[in-house]
Amino acid sequence: MTIPPDIQRRAQPRRIADRVIDDLYKTFSTCLERMADAVLLLDKERRGIYATPQIEQIMSSRLSMPFALTPKFTLHDPANASRFTAFVNGKNTEAGPLSLLLGDEKDHDLLLLTCYHLPTPPTPESHVARYMVTLRDPNRYPVRQWHFFTEQFTLTPAEARLCRALADGLTLSDYCNKWRITISTARSQLSSIFAKTSTKRQTDLLRLIYLFTRA
Question: Is the pTM of this model over 0.85?
Fold first, then answer.
């Protein structure tokens, strides 16, 4: 059957629009997956409608989880659950996004949760994302940002190791004891790092590391 030309012309813009929407969705998904954190999008009922691969990695690497994904996103700790519910219902008194430190009964395997309100859609009844939840292990730096930091300033593996130790709260003495190097070697590495990063003090260096590795 031959499709009349006028119908073909009417259908063409729709196909182009579909491709544009599909491309935008792929771009949006790629941006979320490239973030340092695990990202979960929730609808107005707090049901998960999108999750980055990092969410599965977190769940597969931990024996116990401080939250449940089904039938809706729920925090197990009553105090955190209450704050989260108040936030999504717009009844909290905190400004900005909600941040919670989640852990098990012994505060092992901590996760930093941050929840953001997303813009209200013109049709509230539609199945769209209303909240974005990010999850990060505060004891680990995001790999992509850390690699970018070391490459940006052409740090050697030893210099990058020292930066990581300082960012983790170790002193030069702690670093020397852990890696069995002399204090003069550590000071030489630190001097080289200062020169490459245009910093003069450890506090300035730590601030720079934070700017490059935060979410």
Answer: no
